[in-house]
Design a protein that fits this description.
The chain is an alpha/beta fold. Helices cover 44% and strands 21% of the residues. The chain contains 9 helices and 9 strands. The strands form 3 sheets. Strands 1, 2, 3 and 4 form a 4-stranded mixed sheet that branches. A 3-stranded mixed sheet has the order 5-6-7. α5 packs across α8. The longest helix has 16 residues, at 119-134. The radius of gyration is 22 Å and the shape is elongated. It starts with a helix and ends with a helix. The mean pLDDT is 86.
């Protein structure tokens, strides 16, 4: 039995689902890459968990086999979810989150760092991202850090919602980009809106659009003039039938 087959048999014996064959590292003997299918259970927890995967890696290491895991969304419907899972599993000590935007066959990857990332670690991350994207026939367009990007603040997002209310997610993204702000992905924007909604600053209408709540209006400050953004918001809602 080859070492690749040993890794395959070991993982399957532990109930860890594989996506394709175990790949060997042509530059490093006894070092392999295993593509693991991950799902989410009813509690939205990753299956298999990172704890299970780390334990499996340690056991394989004791057998003289070094294995890196590339985590893939089992349904292959959300590449960004798989990338995030893979980055947090392999680099969770330095990466807080990951986002992805795809244009054609090029992928723009955004990493949310926990700390400054050393050049050698960035090289490791790039290698892992390249392997991951290769499963989907994608190439790296760029890997960037959100810490160096011009991301919109909560205040800027609230101000934009007030100006174009009722605001769709896409509408806010377009408006922010037109002002020179960077939006890592639609998922990033959606998370921002979830945060604003849970904080009580915005309300989502039945139509799916967003408007400021009273707390949101207070946070920005209001004006009584006919030209104010608040009046514009109310007129826009009236025209849309909300």
């Amino acid at each position: 039995m080859s070492n690749q087959e040993r890794v395959d048999a070991f993982l399957r014996g532990r109930g860890i689902p594989l996506s394709g064959q175990v790949a060997d590292d042509i530059f490093n003997l006894n070092h392999f890459f295993a593509f693991i299918e991950v799902t989410r259970n009813s509690e939205n927890l990753q299956v298999p968990s990172n704890k299970e995967l780390i334990a499996a890696q340690e056991e394989l290491k004791e057998l003289g086999l070094s294995v890196e895991f590339i985590l893939i969304d089992a349904d292959r419907q959300d590449i960004e979810v798989g990338l995030r899972a893979s980055m947090l599993h392999s680099f969770g000590e330095i990466v807080r989150n990951a986002f992805l935007t795809v244009h054609g066959n090029l992928a723009q990857v955004w990493l949310v760092p926990k700390e400054a990332i050393a050049p050698e670690k960035m090289n490791e991350i790039e290698d892992k991202v390249r392997l991951f994207l290769g499963v989907f026939d994608l190439q790296i367009g760029a890997i960037s850090l959100t810490s160096t990007a011009n991301l919109p603040s909560k205040f800027v997002c609230l101000k934009t919602v007030r100006q174009i209310a009722p605001a769709s997610l896409e509408g806010v993204m377009q408006a922010l980009r037109s002002k020179g702000f960077t939006i890592p992905s639609e998922n990033w924007m959606s998370r921002m809106f979830d945060n604003l909604r849970k904080s009580g600053f915005v309300v989502r209408l039945k139509s799916g659009g967003y408007v400021l709540s009273i707390d949101g209006l207070k946070a920005l400050g209001t004006s009584k003039s006919r030209q104010s953004a608040d009046i514009t918001r109310i007129l826009a809602m009236a025209r849309s039938g909300e």
